[in-house]
User: Which sequence fits this backbone?
């Protein structure tokens, strides 16, 4: 092969300014991939590059996992929609918006069933409607604890949910409940916005990954940019920022631990998993963390 630029035509005669090189500028057959080669493993999260290789390999279609249909329900007499002129005893409901955004890429559809007040009959009717929609996953927030307005668990049981667990040794997120109703996975998340998001990251995202056949991303082990305080008897999923220092990435713990504090969570990239009774760690110590944004 000799390139056009290295050839000069003079009538019927062609002169070359460079010698021919065998195989130069020729792509051998099977150079990119060969017959029988696996190009995409099961459980692959399809990126644009995966779509390119599949199309290049002449695949007219791909078999993919069906994404689950997810239903969301917020509960609480005090809740109102964003944009409302607030009364003194009202709180803006943020959980369903946050969860919809968090879980969107795992879901075929996300249906927001709105806000239900703390009334047992109302909860029964409206949750029955949410189940009638036959979601693969139903997520409630609020009313998960032990107060007299915390009615969600009783109503879920009335509606045929078989409870798997309720209350776990983590913070935030202690009152998390999980059960099933037929094929529907039912997650009852605590109402506190940080607790709701942290339990969704720690429990719902792995459940959805398993549903889709996608492997869990590995946890990170990174040095602390500042010390952590001692922990209680509950495993702490501590908000932290990923900070790039000259020595590499580090984790800067966010000192705010209030489970209603959304603005601190909005600044976090990672959750440090601080073990039960951890005495606290010095700056520089390596700690385990999970990425909030990981698929
Ligand atoms: N006696 C006990 N009380 C509490 C315990 C306990 O073990 N014993 N646990 C505490 C913990 S930890 C948490 S977390 C909360 C969670 O309780 P609930 O799930 O019943 O949550 P609510 O009382 O409904 O709400 C708590 C808080 O969050 C606000 N909220 C609720 N829904 C939303 C929403 N969709 N968007 C934004 N904010 C929301 C709600 O207005 C409250 O301020 O229980 C503790 N109590
Ligand atoms: O679990 Mo609660 O989430 O500690 O506030």
Assistant:
């Amino acid at each position: 092969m000799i390139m056009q630029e290295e050839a000069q035509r003079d009538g019927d005669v062609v002169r070359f300014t460079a010698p021919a090189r065998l195989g130069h500028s020729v792509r051998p057959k099977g150079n990119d991939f060969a017959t029988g080669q696996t190009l995409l493993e099961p459980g692959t999260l399809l990126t644009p590059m995966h779509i390119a290789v599949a199309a290049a390999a002449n695949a007219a279609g791909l078999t993919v996992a069906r994404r689950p249909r997810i239903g969301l329900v917020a509960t609480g007499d005090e809740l109102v929609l964003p944009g409302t002129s607030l009364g003194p005893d009202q709180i803006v409901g943020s959980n369903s918006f946050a969860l919809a955004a968090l879980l969107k890429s795992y879901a075929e559809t996300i249906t927001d069933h709105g806000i239900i007040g703390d009334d047992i009959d109302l909860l029964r009717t409206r949750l029955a409607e949410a189940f009638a929609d036959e979601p693969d996953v139903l997520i409630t927030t609020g009313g998960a604890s032990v107060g007299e307005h915390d009615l969600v668990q009783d109503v879920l049981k009335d509606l045929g949910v078989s409870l798997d667990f309720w209350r776990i040794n983590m913070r935030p997120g202690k009152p998390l409940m999980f059960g099933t109703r037929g094929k529907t996975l039912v997650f009852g998340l605590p109402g506190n916005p940080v607790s709701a998001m942290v339990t969704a990251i720690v429990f719902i995202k792995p459940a959805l990954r398993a549903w889709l056949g996608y492997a869990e991303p590995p946890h990170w082990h990174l040095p602390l940019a500042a010390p952590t305080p001692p922990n209680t008897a509950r495993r702490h999923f501590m908000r932290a920022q990923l900070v790039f220092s000259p020595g590499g990435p580090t984790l800067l713990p966010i000192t705010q631990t209030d489970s209603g504090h959304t603005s601190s969570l909005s600044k976090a990239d990672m959750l440090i998993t601080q073990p039960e009774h951890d005495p606290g760690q010095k700056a520089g110590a390596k700690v385990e963390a999970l990425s909030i944004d990981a698929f």
Q: What stands out?
A: The chain has a mean pLDDT of 96. The two ends are 47 Å apart (CA to CA).
